[in-house]
Design goal:
alpha+beta, conserved putative lor/sdh protein from methanococcus maripaludis s2 fold, Elongation Factor Tu (Ef-tu), domain 3, Helix Hairpins, eight-stranded mixed β-sheet, 4 helices
Length: 408
């Protein structure tokens, strides 16, 4: 009985071994190829940026008192010297009038002392008066002159305080919401009345790498005048601001923590579209005149922060059914590349491949170096009207990048 069971078990194992054949190895992957070529492209380097007023100041009172007048429209453009606020002037007007009267009294006393001194000097020349009397008259004259000088300073101070009771715009610009209302009491140097900032031109600040510093110094020193649309900005609604900017200031020092330095670009703002604190994207016109290697972005694979493409290389492969036989084959060979600027669906390749190389356009995520491939007869998506199933790079992009030929 045991022998019978053992024989049955052996038969089952042999049947299972005969029935479980290995699946055939996968055939060559069907892919589309792209021939690398150089093109002249127009693109922009983009930097996150913020608009900044060239001058901005908080208005604070120089004298204390009640707000008795507000003479502007909030959020409007004001001009230098325009009357903005008035602080209760009665006390300061009275102090000014009193100081003016005190000055007249001091001037009268000085006139009297001058007359006495002149008279005593005349009498002393004939020995008709005691010398002590003359000395006292001279001292009285000096004191009178000092009193006049003190009264003049008191009058200036009273006049200054009276002037400070009216708050005027220190420069032309846009004024914000008033922080005080009529009847509010303000304190010297503490209460913020309002904030005013210049509005035309408007500055845009952004950070560059210390490696780019020399290039931007050259642009500041005049090279920017040779390039059309060198600096433009994209607003938060993705529209392009109509005016073009120029370098105004490069900061004095590089931040040692980040290796960056701040650059300021000035833009005309006659229509007051730009406001301080606005987030935008600064676009710097590409100045590379030589043609660039352009490939579709979908042909690039990222791995651990490095970038690769698959080159299509003619080679010899072993036959799948008979490993002793070989046949001509097209293999995908992995090649490390250095990326440049992204231009819409395409990307610039700085190094790693050459013009004329054929690279795998799609399906790269499933390939590995040495994978056998075959050229698909179907064109890739978005390649209608192109010959040979090869996709041409689109050099236009939403931020204004396009072939140089489009500029003519």
């Amino acid at each position: 009985m045991r022998k019978r069971h053992f024989t049955l078990l052996i038969a089952c194992l042999l049947f299972a071994a005969c029935g479980s054949k290995k699946p055939p190895p996968p055939g060559p992957a069907s892919v589309n190829l792209y021939t690398v070529k150089k093109q002249s492209v127009l693109y922009y380097d983009e930097y996150p940026a913020n608009t900044v007023a060239l001058s901005q100041v908080d208005l604070r009172p120089e004298v204390a008192g009640y707000i008795t007048g507000i003479f502007f429209t909030e959020g409007a453009h004001v001009v230098k010297g325009q009357k903005l606020y008035e602080i209760d002037q009665r006390l300061y007007q009275e102090n000014y009038d009193q100081a003016k009267a005190n000055l007249k009294v001091a001037e009268g006393n000085q006139e009297q002392a001058q007359q006495d001194a002149d008279r005593y000097n005349y009498l002393a020349s004939y020995d008709a008066i005691a010398k002590q009397v003359l000395d006292h008259a001279v001292i009285t004259l000096k004191n009178s002159k000092s009193s006049v000088a003190a009264a003049e300073q008191a009058l200036k101070m009273a006049a200054t305080n009276l002037t400070y009771s009216v708050v005027s715009a220190p420069f032309s610009g846009t004024i914000g919401f008033s922080q005080v209302k009529l009847g509010n009491v303000v304190t010297v140097g503490q209460t913020i009345l309002n904030t005013i900032s210049t509005d035309d031109p408007m500055a845009v600040d952004f950070l560059i790498s210390e490696k780019q510093l020399t290039h931007y110094e050259q642009l500041k020193n005049g090279a920017q005048q040779k390039i059309d649309s060198l600096f433009t900005i994209r607003l938060p609604n993705d529209s392009i601001y109509a005016e073009q900017g120029k370098i105004s200031v490069i900061d004095r020092a590089v931040d040692p923590q980040t290796g960056t330095i701040r650059v300021r670009i000035e833009f005309p703002n006659s229509h007051y579209i730009l406001r301080p604190g606005l987030s935008c994207v600064l676009r710097v016109h590409n100045q590379e005149a030589t043609p660039q290697l352009i490939v579709p972005s979908r042909s690039v694979v990222e791995l651990m922060g490095e970038y690769f493409v698959f080159l299509a290389k003619d080679s010899i492969a072993r036959d799948k059914d008979d490993s002793t036989k070989t046949h001509p084959a097209l293999l995908a060979i992995e090649r490390k590349v250095q990326l440049g600027q992204t231009v819409a669906p395409n990307v610039i390749i700085k190094s790693g491949i050459s013009a004329g190389d054929k690279i795998v356009l799609d399906g790269v995520q499933s390939l590995r170096t040495g994978s056998e491939i075959t050229v698909s007869k179907k064109p890739p998506p978005g390649a209608k009207g192109e010959n040979g199933g090869q996709s041409k790079p689109d050099s236009s992009q939403s931020n204004g990048a396009k072939p140089d030929s489009a500029k003519k």
